[in-house]
């Protein structure tokens, strides 16, 4: 049971790194980015491309993923800007089309064979945790996710940059009157959100590997996390991710052999939250300020 709980935490923190970017872009910039899962897949394939090259390869994959995420976020921000006053359906169709194009390009380059990703040296073994043997990499992922959660929260809640973003959400016209270009704020949030998605793909490579269809799978999980946690809330994204990580992992362990049981429990949890608190656990008009 301890191993299952730790697995839930490792998956949960990975989902947080992925979902918090989606939550910020959707909850604060009001853009539904369905290409988020494809960005995760880009990171996963970058991790696979440098797999086995030691720490140099792993860090190179992280660096390239970060650059790719920043560039992709800037491009997606420009593409969705003309749709700012239109419905979320238009944004969803545009970003979904981008996701299909990215997935097809990755399929062309890497084929449809699932690729495994090795953990960096020193993190590819196991350690003893309260008498149970557990992969070192997953423990490291819990640590990295915890640090990122603190960093993202502090930046958004306790810095002038975060205050500027929240002010832009609350009153775009007033911020614009102060001489700040709203489009630059949106592009910056989009770029950071996309960077987190591609970085999560590299970090998740040793767990999920890289394969066609992974983008859709993680996108669904990220959307569930965002809905449960509440749009635009870092705390909500963290709590929602940890809940989904535990529900998904424990569901697979307790109901192994029952086809589709884990997915049923996952979406049942989502349904319960929607019934009891439709805005999410920390949702509200401006989730980050709560």
Might you state the CATH topology name? ABC transporter involved in vitamin B12 uptake, BtuC
Question: What structural class do you assign from the helix and strand content?
Answer: mainly alpha
Q: Approximately what portion of the residues adopt beta-strand conformation? A: under 5%
- How would you describe the shape? globular
Number of helices: 11
Number of domains: 1
Q: Report the sheet with the most strands, covering strand number, pairing sense and barrel closure.
A: 2 strands, antiparallel
CATH C-level class: Mainly Alpha
- Residues in helix, %: over 70%
Mean of pLDDT = 87
CATH architecture: Orthogonal Bundle
Radius of gyration: 19 Å
Total beta strands: 2
Characterization of the model:
- With 290 residues, the chain is an all-alpha fold.
- The chain has a single domain, classed as ABC transporter involved in vitamin B12 uptake, BtuC, CATH 1.10.3470.
- 73% of the residues lie in helices and 3% in strands.
- The chain has helices at residues 2-29, 36-49, 54-80, 88-110, 136-158, 160-170, 172-177, 182-208, 214-229, 234-254, 261-276; strands at residues 126-129, 132-135.
- Strands 1-2 form a two-stranded antiparallel ribbon.
- Helix 1 (2-29) packs antiparallel against helix 8 (182-208), helix 9 crosses helix 10 (234-254) and helix 10 packs antiparallel against helix 11.
- The longest helix is centred in the N-terminal third of the chain and has 28 residues, at 2-29.
- It is globular, with a radius of gyration of 19 Å.
């Amino acid at each position: 049971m301890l191993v299952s709980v730790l697995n839930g935490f490792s998956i949960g923190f990975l989902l947080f790194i992925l979902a918090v970017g989606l939550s910020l872009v959707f909850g604060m910039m009001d853009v539904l980015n369905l290409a988020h899962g494809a960005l995760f897949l880009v990171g996963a394939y970058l991790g696979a491309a440098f797999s086995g090259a030691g720490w140099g390869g792993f860090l190179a994959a992280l660096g390239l993923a970060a650059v790719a995420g920043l560039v992709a976020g800037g491009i997606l921000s420009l593409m969705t800007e003309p749709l700012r006053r239109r419905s979320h359906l238009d944004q969803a169709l545009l970003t979904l089309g981008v996701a299909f194009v990215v997935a097809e390009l990755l399929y062309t380059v890497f084929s449809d064979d699932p690729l495994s990703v090795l953990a960096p040296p020193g993190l590819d073994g196991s350690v003893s945790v309260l008498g149970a043997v557990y992969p070192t990499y997953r423990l490291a992922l819990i640590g990295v996710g915890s640090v990122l959660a603190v960093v993202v929260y502090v930046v958004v809640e306790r810095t002038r940059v975060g205050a500027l973003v929240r002010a832009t959400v609350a009153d775009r016209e007033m911020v614009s009157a102060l001489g700040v270009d709203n489009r630059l704020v949106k592009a910056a949030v989009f770029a950071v959100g996309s960077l987190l998605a591609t970085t999560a793909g590299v970090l998740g490579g040793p767990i999920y590997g890289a394969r066609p269809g992974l983008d859709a799978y993680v996108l669904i999980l990220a959307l569930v996390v965002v809905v449960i946690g509440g749009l635009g809330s870092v705390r909500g994204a963290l709590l929602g991710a940890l809940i989904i990580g535990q529900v998904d992992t424990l569901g697979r362990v307790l109901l192994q052999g029952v086809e589709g049981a884990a997915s049923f429990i996952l979406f049942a949890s989502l349904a319960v939250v929607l019934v009891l608190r439709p805005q999410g656990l920390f949702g509200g008009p401006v989730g980050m300020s709560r």
